[in-house]
Structures are given as structure tokens and as C-alpha cells.
């Protein structure tokens, strides 16, 4: 009997790469590389916010305390760029974030009633941001205030609880508001 020869499987042979195919692969690879590097670079730069002095999220210099602070009998001053109200409460100053803590509406100072009122849902707050009535869950949020000397060295700084800070006697000190540091208002009920 004759033995049957088993045929070995044929190994597929790849045809050689043409010049056109090579250029297409190189083009696609370079596009992929540019996409990955561009996306990675954009992600890196947007991951680390850099706030400039004078814009929201950074430190906003207001000037000399004697020139910019309201008197205790004056209504609070609104700073639209910094998104805060600057109020003088019997010789103590505080900066209130101008967004209502209920649903994010922009509340306003009402000179007739002498308090802050939210036009959206009716939350009301005292001049120092303390909750009076309405659906808001807490008092208004505050921002960190610092008094600095001519060299930029801090002389006085808001405490971590956001208690209104006594105004230093030196009216030549500069006042700065750090809009990147918001102190949450105290809850009620």
C-alpha cells in the first residue's frame, strides 16, 4: 500500500507594499499622531486653570481701603467683574458672592427694604448675607478679603468662617478680594 502524502498547508505570502500604500499608511499615522498630541496638549492646558489678576477666579485688587470701602451707612457696592457685593457692617467688611445659594440667580440689594432679595424665588438676606426667609438652604456665600501693604504683604485676612473682618485703621492699605476662595454660608433650620 502506498502511503498518502499529506499536503502541508500553504503559507500565505503577502504581496509587497506598494509606494501608494506606504504613503497612505504614513499619512494616516501622521494624522493620528497629530490628533493624539493635540488632544493631549489641550487636555493638559485646560486641566490647570490659570486665573489672571483682576478676573473672576483670581485675586481682584480694589485699591486703597480708604477710597473704595463703603461707609457703614452706605448700601453695599456691587463689583460685576468680581461677582461680589462689598458691604460695611458697623466698621467690619465682607465680600458676598453675588449668586443666590438657592438656584444660582443673581440677587440684588433693595434700598427700600434694606436687604438683599432674590427675584427668582424670593429668598431674602440681611446686609451681612444672613438668611431671613425663602427657599434658600443657607446664608449667602462669602469671599476671602485681604488687606495688603505697599509691598504686597498681607496685613489682615478673612478668617476661615467668613466672619466680617474689622477694617484696619490704616486707610492706605490696599484691599484685595480672592474670588477663587469662596466660604460657604451657614445653614439654617
Q: Can you offer a commentary on this structure?
A:
Strands 1, 2, 3, 4, 9, 10, 11 and 12 form an 8-stranded antiparallel β-sheet that branches. Helices cover 17% and strands 29% of the residues. A hairpin with a 4-residue loop joins β2 (77-79) and β3 (84-89). It is elongated and about 110 Å long. The chain has a domain at 59-183: Rieske Iron-sulfur Protein, CATH 2.102.10.10. It contains 2 helices and 12 strands.
SSE arrangement:
Layout: H1 19-47, E1 59-64, H2 65-68, E2 77-79, E3 84-89, E4 92-97, E5 108-110, E6 115-117, E7 124-125, E8 131-133, E9 142-148, E10 154-157, E11 165-166, E12 174-183
Antiparallel strand pairs: 1-12, 2-3, 3-4, 4-9, 4-11, 5-6, 6-7, 7-8, 9-10, 9-12
Rg estimate, integer Å: 32 Å
The largest pleated sheet is described as:
8 strands, antiparallel
Distance between the termini: 102 Å
Tally of individual helices:
2
What is the name of the CATH topology of the domain at 59-183? Answer: Rieske Iron-sulfur Protein
* Residue share in β-strands: 25-35%
What's the rounded overall pLDDT mean?
83
The level-1 CATH class of the domain at 59-183: Mainly Beta
Topology, number of strands? 12
